[in-house]
Specification:
143 residues; 3 domains; two-stranded antiparallel ribbon; rod-shaped; binds zinc ion
Length: 143
């Protein structure tokens, strides 16, 4: 048995461990205090304080927290939002048909520059051309 002096109350006590810091009365309190400190640390770690400085996990820049749920700097939050707003490959697959075709070598650029001259993309040009063709030739699928 070792005789140790309690770091909490200063009382001498006997213990089988030479590393014991607290008497049996204070040991529970010490454990309770440690638990409390741990719980507080855990709480403050998960919820960021508004106005505190945080490091952005995406770009590594330091930013000031403006809301409790903020996890990234403003730029990264914005770009994540933008990314979310874009349709996913799945959404596109479900809502759009993909038409792909070949044109003779060199015609691609010619079509592209013609479309640009009309202020349209190739897609817009083709769809517009289709509408005009239908208007002139009839033959709507519904008819
Ligand atoms: Zn004690
Ligand atoms: Zn960032």
């Amino acid at each position: 048995m070792f005789t140790r002096k309690c770091e909490m109350c200063g009382m001498e006590f006997e213990t089988p461990s030479n590393r014991a810091k607290y008497c049996i009365y204070c040991r529970d309190k010490a454990q309770a205090a440690r638990n409390r400190a741990y719980a507080e640390k855990k709480k403050s770690g998960s919820a960021v304080k508004v106005g505190s400085e945080q490091t952005c996990p995406i770009c590594g820049k330091t930013y000031t927290v403006t809301s409790g749920s903020q996890k990234y700097c403003r730029e990264c939050t914005e770009s994540r939002k933008r990314k979310k707003a874009q349709p996913t490959a799945e959404y596109i697959k479900e809502n759009y048909d993909y038409i792909r075709f070949n044109v003779p070598k060199g015609d691609g650029d010619a079509i592209k520059s013609y479309a640009q001259a009309q202020g349209m993309t190739i897609k817009q040009l083709l769809l517009t051309a289709l509408e005009e063709y239908k208007a002139n030739h009839g033959g709507n699928v519904d008819e």
